[in-house]
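DATA SHEET
Item: assembly model
Revision: 1
Owner: S.N.
Input lines:
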Amino acid sequence: MSMHTAMPTSLIPGTSIIHRIHPVTKILWVVVYVILAFTTQNVIILYGMAVFAILMALLGGVFRPLLKAAYLIVPIGSSLISLQVLAPAVEQPWTPIAEVGFVTLYGDGLYFALVLLGRIVSSMLLSLVMVMTTHPSDLFLAFSKLKIPFTFNFMLAMTLQLIPVFQREVTLVLSAQKSRGMKGSGFSAVLPSFIPVFVGAVERVQQLSISLESRGFGSSGNKTSYRQVVARIQDWIYGVGGVTVMIGLMVYSILQPVWWNLSDIIFFSPQTVLVAFSVSVTVFTSVILGALYISFRKT
Amino acid sequence: MSRRAKHGFPAQIETDLAIKVEGAHYVYPNGKVIALSEVNLEVKQGELLGVIGQNGSGKTTLTKLLNRLLQPSAGAVYVNGLLTTDRTVQEMSAHIGYVFQNPNHQLFARTVKDELEFGPRNIGTSEDDIAQRVAEAVDFFGLGEYIDEHPYRVSFPIRKLVGIASVITMKPSIIILDEPSTGQDHQTTRVINSLMRRLAEDGTTVICVSHDMPLLADVVERVIVMRNAEIVADATPREVFADSELMLTTNLQAPQITNIALKTVYPLGGPIALTPQELAADIELRLRKGKY
């Protein structure tokens, strides 16, 4: 039976081209993405990276699970735009562009909000695609080859492997409590569900640590692995290609500084800022009110 | 569009049956695994029913359809005459109690007493009633000395009993026990055995999913056998466990005592014993008559 997870935080089994890429190449891509995302302020590059991550998701057959994570962008994006338009996180003087009553809106803020959102979206989407298309054991092996300390590597791999286990556990615990007449959602569901999951997690970790020690965990020397990952010529090409594109974009931007930050080229009209601000505030308020309603509604 | 309208099943039917399953079919959300295929089942009020089958044969899926934790992909499930798909799990919990295999999945309260009160409170039982139900459960399960303990501070067998008692206090007319004796000591298994008998005496319908064949052979009056998402046999434990072909094709094993009886006293005209007591009684009788 294939794994069915409620949240896109674990491997979605498959044999696509993305699944077959060497884990080290994928890690390299994530590093490239994060470096590029957090250095450039070019929204075209940032959202281009996000589109590329979506293309990877389509190629990897994980687009639908990725969409499940996309809802996180709604509260993040709306809060960023609302706050940045009111008080941009850039050096003053800010450029006032519109006024709503006693509230002043700044054009610089909208651009910077889009930059921040682009950084989060592009890095998040690519990281999720990587997690969804890489077997935790392969990731473990890849980190070993990169000489990451074994214990740290193991902690990371176990975390990724235990996520789907805990997801199943939460579903089971909620079923058990609902069977005793409890509402399965809302604030009242937290305690009856949280404690069994937490206790189960602690017990599982205790048993795991005993089991690991009894099987020689912590012993020195080289470790072998059941799974083997082989770096093919394509993996080298993909990896070198990714790094080259990043360096190329950086060099080009240094030579053409205007490319590094398009805020001097892209201007927003007062109407655009006003509409973006209104929509963001409405969406953000709705999200908060919706969350409060779900949390405190009568059960 | 409601499922009722879609499939044309009435929301409520007049019936004496505790459970009526009509052509229930269940496919897991990934669409690849058929967990139940056209299952039909009728269970009378107060019946003691055992459900056996290999892992993955559909036992748990069937029981989860009964208390509405799952909805059939096709077909209908009636519990006390109510179409489950028209109800919530919470509504169904007043009719049907579900004891999970692992008590750790349901215990959360600060004390055993709070845990036993949780279910009845959810279904709106009065305080006096709750106190009485808890007192009865504590008395029956022998939980007196643990009543103020944290459920996670008691031993696993006691925790298992707390889990069962926390459902019993809701006094549902139907109870599903999922692997009640797995990992339990002899004492706890004995308590579970007498609990099932007492529930049946009180008119409660009991459905026990288990791999513990001696327990089922001793207690239940009817067994259904599942294989590959279907019910392949529905008979008394004696008929089921005597059917060597059925046991073989379903990868199940009859109680050892039944196997011994089948190979020794049965060919000589003796009974298909389900319990050591039955076999011993037959041997004693034959010895007296000088047949050995």
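QC remark: Chain B has a mean pLDDT of 90.
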